[in-house]
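Subject: Sanity check before I submit

Could someone independently write out the structure tokens for this chain? I want to compare against mine line by line before I put it in a report. The sequence has 124 residues.
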Amino acid sequence: QVQLVESGGGLVQAGASLRLSCAASARSSSPYGMAWFRQAPGKEREFVATISWNGRLIYYADSVKGRFTISRDNGKNTAYLQMNSLKPEDTAVYYCAADPYGRPGLRREEYDYWGQGTQVTVSS
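---
Independent answer below. Compare away.
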């Protein structure tokens, strides 16, 4: 079992930056594949970014490429999502997810563990 706790969300203006954090607590010391998804009101949860257990494989959704950066610190069991040049369409609840096999999956079905989410609101 692993518990994920997101933090760092908030209300910002368009063009601003935010950094989300996802702290993982788990019995196993093996690093997990980590990802960020987001869900806007009335929409399905969508993939944002993912990073493999060793940080060597990283993938982004086209909508955030060049603006968002995913990273991780295995010593702290924490993943991060640096979000720059935020747009109103980035407004959503952002969820952290973990895959116990360490893979950088792009689909929700590949993740066994989810955080409670953190709200990001970008005003125009």
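---
OP: Matches mine. For the report I'm noting this point. The two ends are 40 Å apart (CA to CA).
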